[in-house]
Design a protein that fits this description.
The chain is mainly β and about 250 residues long. It has 3 helices and 13 strands.
Length: about 250
């Protein structure tokens, strides 16, 4: 079954498989000390990452997939949040894409993303503007060979542009504002670059695309079982995604 882990070639279907994955990743991981313990970060040359969260008692309390690619989006960072289910190593950032006039609270749209390395920085000195390495893990995805192909299949009266972004995690299924925003988005964008990648820890394949959408550029990763057509340069992809990222120039208190 597709998951955030299988989006980077790490399919896990049981607690035992999750433990085995964490054990193998820890053997070739770098240690990053933080206030609440330490991260063990496993990474591949092609971008896939696995972040193990180790508390001060040396217990593994969390495991998070991530990806580091070439995408950069300028974001006005305005709020740092902790969700009820988060560990001390996890957090969510609320911000504005592509802020205007050097104002972090005025951009193309607001959205949220998971901050994969939150415990390194502690409390941020808000608000500020920074480049963010933003990755989107596909939940659902449709691939179009060109912009003409995309336009021809827009059959509804309300048609979305080939570069559009809806911060779906800010709203409930009833359209009401979420009490706890979620790092989800629905977006469409143009493929700048793409290829199949292989996870060196599992030798499993996954798909990657560098995508230009409204507000900036995002690295998209995807389990191959979700793909209806081959992703191609200058094609269009559209779907729903989980967002995570790293702040390139964090301001801390």
């Amino acid at each position: 079954m597709p998951s955030h882990f299988s989006s980077i070639g790490m399919p896990v279907n049981s607690e035992e498989e999750m433990y085995d994955l964490a054990q193998r990743a820890s053997e070739n991981a770098i240690e990053i000390l933080c206030h609440d313990g330490r991260y063990l970060k496993w990474s591949s040359d092609e971008g896939a990452e696995l972040w193990l969260q180790i508390d001060k008692n040396n217990d593994l309390i969390g495991l998070a997939p991530s990806f580091s690619g070439s995408a950069i989006m300028k974001v006005g960072i305005t709020n740092q949040m902790q969700m009820p289910e988060d560990t001390a190593f996890e957090g969510t950032i609320y911000g504005w894409a592509n802020p205007q006039n050097n104002d972090p609270e005025n951009g193309e749209y607001p959205f949220v993303f998971d901050l994969i390395d939150k415990a390194i920085y502690g409390n941020l000195d808000l608000p500020f503007i920074s480049d963010v390495s933003l990755s989107a893990f596909a939940h659902e995805i449709t691939v179009y060979t060109s912009e003409d192909d995309y336009d021809s299949q827009q059959t509804e009266e309300l048609k979305f542009a080939s570069e559009s972004f809806i911060p779906s995690g800010l709203f409930s299924s009833e359209g009401e504002k979420q009490t706890y925003p979620k790092p989800y988005a629905i977006f469409t964008g143009k493929v700048i670059d793409c290829r199949k990648l292989y996870n060196s820890l599992t030798n499993r394949e996954y798909n990657w695309a560098l995508v230009k959408t409204l507000g900036g550029i995002i690295d998209v990763v995807c389990d191959p079982v979700l793909i209806n057509n081959a992703i191609v340069k200058n094609g269009i992809i559209s779907g729903s995604f989980w967002l995570n990222g790293k702040i390139k120039e964090p301001k801390v208190k």
